[in-house]
Design brief:
By secondary structure, the protein is of the alpha/beta class. It is built from 10 helices and 13 strands. Helix 7 packs across helix 8. It is elongated and about 75 Å long.
């Protein structure tokens, strides 16, 4: 997969953790001793950002072998990467590299669980993750959800059209069709997505010409009702289910007929546990 973090970002992470050298390895006099380090999975996980971890360790002064690229499913004890070089270099990069892989793999693993659950009942359903990643961690989070099999819902406000009720309050004098027509004139190449919170509202906006109806916090039963109604009213309209979707209910929403499941759940996943061993070479 393409890099998520450029070299200067990796250097900044190292500088933040080791601003003036590793005092412990220096004081113990072991910094120049030859050493080997391994990263292995303690529990099943979907690996993410192992490439960034490998590059970071390389920039710390190690030579690295990557065994599990991002997106790889690894079982307990499975190898992720190995590195060798001076003990000081391995200790310098160890914790930052481990933390990157653990956090990103947590996101990727939960993403894969949602995707697998949904596609078990609807193979063509898409899982799209929102822009509600931890601020400052968007690049890491996007690569992790891609490794898990999802796609970004919106990378930001600049490239997509998503009309919320918060927008419509400023246009109370306009009918839905007039609002959609305004968007078609302004940005004719963009898909028009409208978020709704009731079935009747979704039908109205679909009839007005919205390309996607994003159903916010609908139950699976309400999604099924909306999908059924739109088969008659606006059969080309895509229904996206959003709000509260995770591994436990993704299948129900997919079975109800949603073409897209919109979720933020992966971003709060617990980091996966990666075991690191450093020993003399």
């Amino acid at each position: 997969m393409l890099p998520a973090l450029p070299d200067h970002a990796l250097d900044a992470l190292l500088a933040d953790d080791v601003p003036l050298g590793d005092l412990t390895t220096h004081a113990l006099g072991i910094a120049e001793r030859p050493a080997r380090m391994t990263f292995t999975a303690r529990d099943p996980l979907v690996v993410a950002l192992s490439e960034e971890a490998a590059r970071l360790l390389g920039r710390a002064g190690a030579q690295v072998e990557l065994f599990a690229p991002s997106g790889t499913e690894v079982g307990p004890g499975g190898p992720i990467l190995a590195a060798h070089g001076p003990a000081g270099a391995l200790h310098r990069g160890w914790k930052v590299a481990q933390t990157l892989v653990e956090i990103a793999s947590g996101i990727a693993t939960r993403t894969r669980a949602i995707v697998a659950a949904a596609r078990a009942v609807a193979p063509d359903v898409a899982v799209a993750c929102t822009r509600k990643a931890v601020p400052g961690a968007k690049a890491l989070s996007i690569k992790a959800i891609l490794a898990g099999g999802a796609v970004p819902h919106r990378l930001g406000l600049s490239e997509t059209i998503l009309v919320f009720d918060q927008h419509r309050r400023f246009l109370a004098d306009l009918a839905p069709a007039e609002i959609v027509a305004r968007l078609r004139r302004s940005v004719p190449e963009k898909t028009v997505v409208v978020e709704v919170d009731a079935v009747d509202e979704g039908i109205a906006w679909a009839r007005a010409g919205a390309d996607v109806i994003q159903a916010e916090k609908f139950s699976p039963e309400a999604i099924a009702a909306l999908v059924a109604a739109l088969k008659e009213a606006a059969p080309a309209t895509i229904v996206a289910a959003a709000g509260g979707i995770g591994p436990d209910n993704a299948a129900a929403y997919a079975a109800a007929g949603a073409r897209v499941l919109v979720t933020s759940a992966p971003y709060t996943a617990k980091p996966r546990d990666v075991q690191v061993r450093i020993a003399p070479a």
